[in-house]
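ARCHIVE CARD
CATEGORY: sequence design from structure
SOURCE FIELD: tokenized fold
FIELD CONTENT:
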């Protein structure tokens, strides 16, 4: 049986999520603003949770409908097949958002949706009280321009929580955003990746996991693993499938540099938890001394900038240093994320390609340099 699903994602990575889901054999993949719709069996839901590098969550899309009144909201929610997913002891709290809609009160919408689900379950379970002591089935809703989407969160803690980064420096990049940068930089199993501002090592670790095809959710648990609606065998099969896809023989290598000794210790600890410590060489190095050594290299970095750690003047001086040391050279590419619209002017060269992404709530550009200078 096929079901409808939705994966919310960071703005700017919808295309990456859509391509990834197609690769994972999802059907009817459709990218929208900030989310991607798809369909498939229960195994696709498990696979999306285990294997998606760029999405924030995997949700069961229970239904969509139009509602201009609380009565329409109640009837629309009540008409959905909640009994197929929620048992008589399961917990099913409600949370969500309303944007540009007549039903603007989120607390009132939460109460109406909760009541509608209870009424539906009462009819099917033939009980009047739900103790909600069982596995969590978090109901989410989005009302946008009077269009209602109601979902069940199958993920739990966001997919960016891979499990390897219990500790981080003061301004970490989100794992899903780091993975997106790695993909945009076209990291391959044979690549050599360098992060000269490694912080807690997220970019180097995500690059290693992507190159070795290590599923990012392989060593964590998901909310839907406790659901009776999804047989435990599906999760076992999908974990085995993900395990079989790992390429330990790939010649990938990464180098993580920073001037902060504490950051380097975090990188080592996080790489060990991720199982890729033997692929990442961690060293204390100043960006000023960077050199493009060898025939090829893929530099990816998230430098500190004015809105995070440095003031604007310090950040722009760092960009000037990058412009000097990131030498245009055949076989070498440089991918840098920054919110500074003056980045290219400070760097000293127009990027060969740029793409808008969001680092949390901060609008950024990913600047890519991969063409050698013409004589």
């Amino acid at each position: 049986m096929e079901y409808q699903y939705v994966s919310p994602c960071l703005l700017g990575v919808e295309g990456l999520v859509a391509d990834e889901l197609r690769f994972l054999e999802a059907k009817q993949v459709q990218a929208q603003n900030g989310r991607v719709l798809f369909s498939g069996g229960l195994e696709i839901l498990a696979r999306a949770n285990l294997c998606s590098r760029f999405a924030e969550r995997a949700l069961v899309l229970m239904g969509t409908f139009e509602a201009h009144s609380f009565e329409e909201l109640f009837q629309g929610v009540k008409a959905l097949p909640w009994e197929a997913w929620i048992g008589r002891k399961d917990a099913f709290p409600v949370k969500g958002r309303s944007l540009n809609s007549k039903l603007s009160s989120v607390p009132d919408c939460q109460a109406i949706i909760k009541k509608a689900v209870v009424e539906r379950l009462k009819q099917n379970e033939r009980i009047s009280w739900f103790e909600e002591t069982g596995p969590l089935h978090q109901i989410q809703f989005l009302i946008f321009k009077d269009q209602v989407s109601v979902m069940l969160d199958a993920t739990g803690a966001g997919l960016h929580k891979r499990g390897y980064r219990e500790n981080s420096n003061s301004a970490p990049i989100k794992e899903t955003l780091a993975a997106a940068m790695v993909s945009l930089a076209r990291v391959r199993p044979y690549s050599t990746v360098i992060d000269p501002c490694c912080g807690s090592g997220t970019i180097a670790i995500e690059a290693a996991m992507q190159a070795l095809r290590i599923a990012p959710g392989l060593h964590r648990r998901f909310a839907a693993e406790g659901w009776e609606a999804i047989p435990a065998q599906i999760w076992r099969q999908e974990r085995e499938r993900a395990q079989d896809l790992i390429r330990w023989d790939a010649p990938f290598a990464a180098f993580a540099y920073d001037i902060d000794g504490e950051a380097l210790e975090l990188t080592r600890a996080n790489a060990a938890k991720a199982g890729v410590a033997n692929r990442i060489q961690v060293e204390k190095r100043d960006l000023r001394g960077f050199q493009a050594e060898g025939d090829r290299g893929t530099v990816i970095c998230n430098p500190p900038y004015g809105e995070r750690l440095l003031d604007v003047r310090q950040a722009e001086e760092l960009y000037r240093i990058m412009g000097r040391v990131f030498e245009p050279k055949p076989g070498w590419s440089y991918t840098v994320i920054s919110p500074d619209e003056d980045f290219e002017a400070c760097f000293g060269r127009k990027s060969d390609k740029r793409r808008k992404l969001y680092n949390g709530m901060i609008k950024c550009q990913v600047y890519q340099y991969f063409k050698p200078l013409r004589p």
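CARD ANNOTATION: The chain has two domains: 3-153, 175-214+223-369. The first helix runs from residue 14 to 23.
SHELF: design records, drawer C
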